[in-house]
Fold Probable disease resistance protein At4g33300.
Amino acid sequence: MGYSDFFAGEIGTELLKQLIAISSKACLCKSSADNLIASIRELLPIIEEIKFSGVELSPFRQYQLNRFSETLRGGIELAREVLTAGRWNVYRHVQLARKMEKLEKQVESFINGPMQAHLLADVHHMRFETMERFDRLESRLEQRLNWMKNGAGGWVEEAVKRMEVEGEASLGTLGGVGLDLGKSKVKNMILGMDDLNVVGIWGIGGSGKTTLANEICRDNQVRSYFNNRICFLTVSQSPDLEQLRAKIWGFITANEAMGYLNNLFVPQGKLLSEWGSGPRALVVLDDVWSSSVLEQLIFRIPTYKTLVVSRFKFPTSVVNEVYEVELLREDESMSLFCHSAFGQKSIPPTANETLVKQIVDECKGLPLALKVIGASLRDKPEMYWASAKKRLLRGEPICESHENKLVERMAISVEYLNETVKECFLDLGSFPEDMKIPLDVLINMWVEIHDIEEEEAFAILTELSDKNLVTLVKDARAGDAYCSNYEICVTQHDVLRDLALHLSNRGEVNERKRILMPRRDRELPRDWERNSDQPFKARIVSVHTGEMREMDWFRMEFPKAEVLILNFSSYEYFLPPFIDDMPRLRALIVINHGTTEATLQNFSVFTNLANLRSLWLEKVSVPQLSNATVPLRNLRKISMVLCKVNNSFDPSVLDLPHIFPRLSEVIIDHCDDLIKLPLSICKVNSLQSLSITNCHRLCELPTDLGMMKKLQILRLYACPELKMLPPSIGELTGLKCLDISQCVNLRYLPREICKLASLEKIDMSECLQIVNLPTSSALSNLKSLRRVICDDEISGHWRNVEKDMPHLHVQVAEKCYSLDWLNS
């Protein structure tokens, strides 16, 4: 403790007494005296704290306090002069008043300047003395600085982040198999793999990522390995990169005070690679939102490791290996929910067990949802619980607390997306809960409604997947230039779907961009009927019902609707009459979730669909087409999945080029009654892609197949009854991809296939009957061929061709057995 600290305290006390006396006597100096009294009363407790702290101050701080002591001493002398001045000496009082104002400004300047720096230095000194205590102070100080710098937005963001951590904390308290397993895997990546400098924890918001990271930091084995050199930093969405880099560098070099000065001493680029080994250190970067930000916070130094916690997936070039947080199992979910709702780990005897289980099931194992919803229902009557269950089924918040703590927290991930990507995320609320959404359906919809190309639509889907907002069902073919997207699916956690519904349902129903049914119901929503006297401005309309008859519909107008999604479960389905009032409709998706194909009625509504470009039919009996069928002049793509189609094609009268003059893509999948294709399909000159897959009774292709000069993709995947390809296949001069995989009875490739000069890819895996190919010299005419996928038995022949074609890559197919199709 310095002498000047004590002296300043004594002077301040004496000055305060004098000022109180002045305030009561001297009128001209009263204002300044009152202000000084307030300032010194705030100052005295701080000076007392410095006096009794027991910390020896630096010479520079002693110098500053000495100067302040002189100022206060002068203030005492000035105060005495004011008290002794004659009451009627007005000129003297004016002079003294000016001096008092000057003293007031000096005291105020010290409080707002050097005093603030002294306080910050005290915090840094405490950090040096005890790491844990400083961590708490640092967090509070950083929050205040961010608030001062960024305004209320930064403060709110950090507050919401704290709420998520608190919500997840219960999981750490309760423990569980999932948390222990995750902890074991992350520890192994950090401690057991020396070649991994940067590892990550990745998961959906509220899944327990930060809880897991905190458990890692508290683990005795981890702390011992790094000799307690562990630094936990929250990055957030608007980080101060220079400050964070300086903190990290100061921590690594054990010179932490430097980290609070500036970023000048942090080495850049090549200097880092020349830095030698030092003591082991672990830096945890929590809540990282950007790959570009992350790259600037990683220091590639031996013995130093970084643990990245994020809801976004980063490339392996940045994060070497990632642990994906798993959602809670059923028993863990129940324990966490009961802890929040009842204060115990199991359902109490007085609670409605069925209702509790139904609500827990709606949370789908997400820790934050279990915590927030459980707390929202605590001490509420059973009728309130029943109402909450119904609201959850509709994708609505059950109360203000639920909306603020869960929905708005999850919404942060969406608000920072660019506008198109955000709109695509919101479109996902158009599909039923727990549905495996065919990738083709999504991409078709996005292409039509957002005016983007298929490649951009797939890139958006990948971005949403990397940000943990959707799950792209893993498939090695996903993203391949010639893959069949209708066999690849997308899923979404129910909480994220509820978020999409919540954000889409804001505003009056007639004004919304999307008008959606959150779950299957026997009838259309009542608020649709109440507002049906006015046109709806929605661009996407999604209906989910059971059987619908003509009388079940009511008239609605959708002058701006571009996408209509009809989900139902029934044997018969009357198409909605309001399709007539959708002049801009570009994509129609009809999906039957029943056990057998449904019969569609009211097909006459197609008469007015002049702008329809994409049609998806699933598990329905396709109505018979004839030359009298009204042409769909703008239809580009038609997909028929699990449909009855054989009665649709009357080969003797059907003129497909007349009905579909601009058709460019046809998909027929799992249509087990398809035996032959209509001959007139060969006359559809606009056709570029023909996919006939999993049609187990297809036995013959049209002999005039070669007439489709614009055809680029021909897929005949898993058609076991198909025994030969017509020789006219050699006339498909524009063909780029031929997929005949799993055509187990196909006996040979015709010699004419060697004429396909544009062919780039052949997939003939699991074609067990093909043992001979055209000669190598003939196959070498396939100048554009880049990739062949085949079985090991025939690969030798292709290897010989590969020798003469340096750009050709021959890939032996792996044996793959999957039962995923059972869930279709």
About this structure: The mean pLDDT is 78. The two ends are 77 Å apart (CA to CA). Residues 417-506 form a domain with the Arc Repressor Mutant, subunit A fold (CATH 1.10.10.10).
